């Protein structure tokens, strides 16, 4: 069985896992059991963990949008940083230190202003966002629980991992959905931030397997998971349009730069400063 924690919402917020229900139409659970809870509520975490008594815990919960973390800095710290501590403390409170394996979804945003290329497990951290700073606390509190209480706890320092289930306001899905809408005649143009930002993008399916494998080892150890390749947002845009038979030609500079379709002359991409991070990585 797999148990999950879901936040209460006035509208259904399980769209990305509906296929896991025994009956998706009626939301009837099978081997997946959902519990209402929140990483900001330590009481509910203790209650759920004590009831379920899991053998593996994967902490994938977070306010995970880096740009938005600048607007919601305190909330991001509470959920991503202290929320991890609440979860670890709940394991300890329930007396499950010796029987639980704990996976923490760490992040390449810890490296931020990179101190060496390529990054590895021993690369010094230099986070450049409230999200990265909160995840840095989470990383070290996991290490502390591992060393202080002998808890099998690991940090997976994962670079960007994408799939069709990625949230629509993340750049990869924003580009792919917008290009699809342009192809269908539902949209003419969309705006992006820094076109020259570079990321290491992998597929979520491979990265989730890596998470699971990290909890199957004999000894707990932190790992960096990445493809080893970086590509720019600009490249992502060009390849996406190529998929629908369009060639994007770039004109202008900085915030005045546009992406024009070579075949039709139409502008399909513009740059908007509101999508820039205050500090880029």
From TrEMBL:
Q: Which cofactor does it need?
A: NADP(+)
Q: GO biological process: any one?
A: 'de novo' GDP-L-fucose biosynthetic process
Please give the pathway this protein is involved in: Nucleotide-sugar biosynthesis; GDP-L-fucose biosynthesis via de novo pathway; GDP-L-fucose from GDP-alpha-D-mannose: step 1/2
Keyword rRNA-binding included in the entry's annotation? no
One Pfam family it belongs to: GDP_Man_Dehyd
User: What InterPro entries does this protein's entry cite?
Assistant: GDP_Man_deHydtase, NAD(P)-bd_dom, NAD(P)-bd_dom_sf
Q: Which UniProt keywords apply?
A: Lyase, NADP
Q: What is its EC number?
A: 4.2.1.47
Keyword NADP assigned to the entry: answer is yes
Catalytic reactions of this protein: GDP-alpha-D-mannose = GDP-4-dehydro-alpha-D-rhamnose + H2O
Highest rank taxon of the organism: Eukaryota
Identify the enzyme class: lyase
- Which ranges carry the NAD(P)-binding domain? 1-281
Family designation: Belongs to the NAD(P)-dependent epimerase/dehydratase family. GDP-mannose 4,6-dehydratase subfamily.
* Protein name in UniProt: GDP-mannose 4,6 dehydratase
